[in-house]
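Entry for the shared binder. Reason: the reviewer on the internal report wants the predicted structure included alongside the sequence.
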Amino acid sequence: MSSSTKFETVATPYGCMHNVHVLSRWDNGAPRACHCLAPDMAPTPHGWLMPLHDVTDVRRSCENSFTLYPNGMWRSLELQHQTSVPTPLGLLPAEWLSWHPGGALKRILTRKGRLSGYWTEKDEEALAPCLDLTLPAGRFTGKVQGLRFHPGGQCASITLWPGQTWTISTPVGPLP
């Protein structure tokens, strides 16, 4: 951290974030991308969550801890630790979340590690939890990388870890 790094307080509709370095701003001057320089709790639509601030773990990289929309609403938040967050499908583990402009949950990633020569996809997958989800297409049990939601809360998509399969029953027979 250089001596020119400026600590700021960033306001959101849910409360303030302290000890923040604003990395970029919107045309209106509002913070766009920010990096937390010390531990803090982020007031979000899904409760108080701890943003990523310590990147000493080989699997974590931190270009930014969080991003905001021009109106100050949360756009994305990377968490320091995998944390259970309320979703339309119940409590699910997440390391990264994003929101629609109105504040509804848009996407979660269960793990958000950086792959490198020292950390592989297999290493990351070994940390991924096995989830049991009830979705419109049926029940899925296995490892999920991420889930995306429509603004109304319906599940829009599910991303499985490589090697995970899900057979869905359809009117013309099972679909892998």
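Summary line for the report: The chain has one helix and 14 strands.
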